[in-house]
Fructose-bisphosphate aldolase (Aaosphaeria arxii CBS 175.79), 289 residues
Amino acid sequence: MSSFPENNRTWQILHEADNGGYAVGAYNCYNTDSVMAVVRAAENKRSPAIIQLFPWTLHFQGKHFIKFVIEYTHSASVPIAVHLDHCIQPEDVDLALSLPVPFDSIMVDASTLSPEENIRTCKSYVERATALGICIEAEMGRMEGGEDGLPHVDMKTILTKPEEAESFVRETGVHFLAPSFGNIHGAYGPGGAEKAWDLERLRKIHAALPHLPLALHGTHPVSDELFLESIKCGMRKINLNRTVRDGYTQFIAENAGKLELTVLSMRGVEVYTNGVERMMDVLGSSGKA
Ligand SMILES: [Zn+2]
């Protein structure tokens, strides 16, 4: 029997990806269609996966929905972890840590606080989460922007300093790190992510923490080539939201009211599944489970 964190699902998935030099998609899900699509895609592709919920789900759908997602996901024939994305409010982390069926991992986003407060906050949550077998992802520096289910951050970007990355991880004990290197939530400006990202900075962060899985936020849109480049720079958890969701919402928008709800749902899940499968191939996680 392995002990924590080696026995944690998210930890196992991301460290296997690290050993294999590929990345695993962390798919933001908002409803049962999306959860079903990720599970089906993962089983079809024999790929590990991570399902991410926002704190919005804690409040809107509630703990029984989360229990369903975790039990459904963990009963899949391939490893799938359930992660809580961007916990900004301390009461959301407290709520998440009190669930009878716990998340595998939680992102504590204290990036709106000062760097010292960020370290203090992460450290205290790592201690509490560790006792429950839950891994913690933290944001070092600060990313701007917003996405559906996530409050908009209009504070200035703070890029992660590579020379401070190792001490941040050592002092906090966090298991995964989301660096800020020009990536933003929501739409990129002219030139796209190619222009906005400072890959040299990302390489230095990876060099400072060669065995710590990095988490990529701000992926809409990002080209397949740039995803591959980010994997070479240590990205192991790649957050995907609109990239795999837009096809589904478009299909629903065009067909709601025209098809019976059962048919709409089945075909909607199929469209969503295809999008997730495509990304599993791009990230290299297909065939790894
Ligand atoms: Zn994010």
Notes: The chain has one domain: 9-283. The CA atoms of residues 194 and 226 lie 7 Å apart.
